[in-house]
Amino acid sequence: MNGQTIARYKILEKLGDGGMGVVFKAEDTQLHRTVALKFLPKELACDLTAQEQLFHEAQTASALDHPNICTIYEVGKTEDGQPFICMAYYSGETLTKRIEKGSLRVQEAIEISVQTARGLQKAHEAGIIHRDIKPANMILTNDGFIKIIDFGLANVGTWKRITRKGATIGTAAYMSPEQIRGERIDYRSDIWSLGVCLYEMLTGKIPFEGDYEPALMYSILNDDPQRFINISPQVTGQFGSVEMRQIEGIVKKCLEKKPEDRYQTMAELILDITHLQSKAHEAVLPPVQTKKRFFQNMHRIVWILIVVVILGIFSILSMNSFFSKPELKRKSIAVLPFKNLDNNQDDEYFSDGITEDVITQISRFGDLTVISRTSVMQYKNTKKTIPEIARELNVGTILEGSVRRLGNRVRIVSQLIDVGTDTHIWSETYDRQLRDVFLIQSDVAQKISQALKVTLRSEGFKPVPERSAGNITAYEHYLRGREYYYRFNKSDNEFAVSQFKMALDLEPNYAAALAGLADAYAQRVAKFGFPPEWVDSAITISNKAISIDVNLAEAHKALGLAYSGKGWHHRAAQSYQQAVELNPNYLTAVNNLGVEYSFMGEFDNALIWFKKSLPLNPTFPFSYYTVGGSYSNLDDYEKAREWFNKCIELQPDFQYVHAGEAVMYLRQGDYQHSFIEAKQILAVVPDDLEALTLAGWSKLFNGEYTQAKSFFEKALTIDTTGTYWYGIGRSSSTALGFINLQLGQEDNARKMFQRSRRLDQIQLDQQSEWYTIRYDLALINAQEGNKIEAYRWLRKAIDVGWRDYHLGQQDPLLKSLQGDDEFKQMISGVQASIRDMRKRWDKLEKE
């Protein structure tokens, strides 16, 4: 069938042939996307019952909207009446193919199992039993997701199934004992099958074997699986003996012969396996990640040594004069990380979580400046004195404390110190039940407000969201999820998501955990190149959190991040504004407001918010970087460099500075230095999307097309969705289209431009406000000789925030326009708007 067109689908290749269907890879010629088409085998194509079952499969899967379940687009028929299902095509490989390469690492096997279990949990909640869970029906996508496919045997109610002649319902090696005996089955049969898959992932072998199917079935019904250590000693080498017994115990419980002896629900299995996942996560870090952290730690050590030397030369006062003001404000506070006094250092997340929650509670008081979590966490286990820390953070009071957990009890000691007089304003020791931890946080916040004579910002506002005493376990999962979210890398994001979900499994209406999950989903798209569908989920979950607790600033901030991912900048700014009104000391919301104004081309307003963030994190380099970037946007390169240099003083290995300077050099036409700055980042983080695109554009602007091509091609292998717009706001596929034209490869150029246009249209259909989309369409039309359309899209880009007239004047893709009076007038108008913003800011700064 290769090359044939069926309905609107062009068949590309055959993907597989199973007992109940043949699957082909195809191209949707209308929507220009790759899909998978499933047809009935020829001998069943005319069987009405078989057709009914095919439609049943489509209905079953389409009813399950979940990231780990395949997406069904439509059900149709060919001209000759042959039915088919059109579903999403996922780039990657089946778990079968992955296992054929060798047994998986423990962490990888656990992650696959967790994702599969969550997909099946969604199915079970809808009353659906898959009945055919096996590695061949689990796809590992290139972006790290598991997709469960083939719901052809799924059981809903009393659905009657058929098979091809001689075929077994399900695949024998993965069938549960009750399934083999032909008994009535329930959700616990899927739990058995998933246990078989986990066993196979870890050992490379199935737990029950036989030379022929009856022998295999006999083994399933009567034999016990071999111990891991007897099959695959390397698994024990990856994991400690205690953890090995735990994971083997999980598999054993899945494979109990009697359904009542197994896990009774997927939720129970998920609870156990994600608890184990945290230990696997710490024990088995990916090699690249380990190397990266080692590199970063070495930089920190070098920086600490430099600071020590400088401190030996200069006085502490002169060293910190950059951060300090002549007088410390009494109504300003830093909450130092509470010391963890437990013997188990794995519980650091709990004491850190207590610290952050206290910061959150006292941030809700009106006229109190509270230093952000980002700034205070650097003082964890510090040897600096209280006066030193106070001068660096420019605060008049400091709260310090400790946490110790003993069984179901917790002891929290806290004391508030007036830095100016070096006296204790207030101190308290709390020795209570663990479930009282929320009341302790509330009491600490109230005592601080009384001591500093500050009040709530509005009447009736609750300083602490209400939580029931039964939430303590959920709270612990939430704290751990939040800890890993702040690490800002892909593997930690995955773990954070699992922890937030565990919290929500226990407390479905836990607003803070919902906000954390929404944040993590939005972070996936913003930082790790995940498909934009995750942003839609983030919006839904954020709104649910707000409906539960309208005063939860974190929920409004999460909604803002999700809106930003959709390109809805005005809505994002409104959500961030709401978060700031609820918590004026909420650093992330303050910073992100500035970011949204930058996206809208309002650089003076952006600078206002970036400057407001400085007192909240005076030792955090990113705040200084954003101020420098705003001055660069306002054409004040001298001040931009001044602020970028402050970043380097704070953190010599701060990578964002190189990106900011690369853009500055590019605007000034110094392409060589722009490339050098981008390479500085790539030397440390080779797959950084912003650095790859900046390196590519530096080479392209300089006419070095072959070198530029390699950077853009690598960027596209990472950003497969085509949604990445940072750097200088241009599409990598559009750049490759231009480069292919210069290299005489017109067909490839046309394909790249078509790809960009298609992706641009998708975002426009979603009402995205990104100026980059409009500018990209202006570039494509200019290259295709459509000047009228190019000018139309360039005007649209300016209307929604495009201000980079320097690059517009140099852009090789706009060469056909740059001599026109119309183009010069448009550029002149943008330049005038930059001058007006700079004048307004200069006036405001003088005031």
Architecture overview:
The protein is of the alpha+beta class and 847 residues long. It folds into 5 domains: 5-88, Phosphorylase Kinase, domain 1 (2-Layer Sandwich), CATH 3.30.200.20; 92-159 and 170-283, Transferase(Phosphotransferase) domain 1 (Transferase(Phosphotransferase), domain 1, Orthogonal Bundle), CATH 1.10.510; 327-459, 3-Layer(aba) Sandwich (Rossmann fold); 471-584, Serine Threonine Protein Phosphatase 5, Tetratricopeptide repeat (Alpha Horseshoe), CATH 1.25.40.10; 730-847. The strands form 4 sheets. The protein has a 6-stranded antiparallel β-sheet, covered by helices on one side. Strands 12, 13, 14, 15, 16 and 17 form a 6-stranded mixed β-sheet that branches. A 3-stranded antiparallel β-sheet has the order 7-9-10.
User: In one word, what is the shape?
Assistant: flat
From the N-terminal CA to the C-terminal CA, the straight-line distance is: 74 Å
Structural domain tally = 5
* β-strand amount: 5-15%
Number of helices: 37
Which value, in Å, is the CA radius of gyration? 29 Å
CATH superfamily of the largest domain: Transferase(Phosphotransferase) domain 1
Q: Major sheet, described briefly?
A: 6 strands, antiparallel
Q: Largest sheet, order of strands side by side?
A: 1-2-3-4-6-5
Count of extended strands: 17
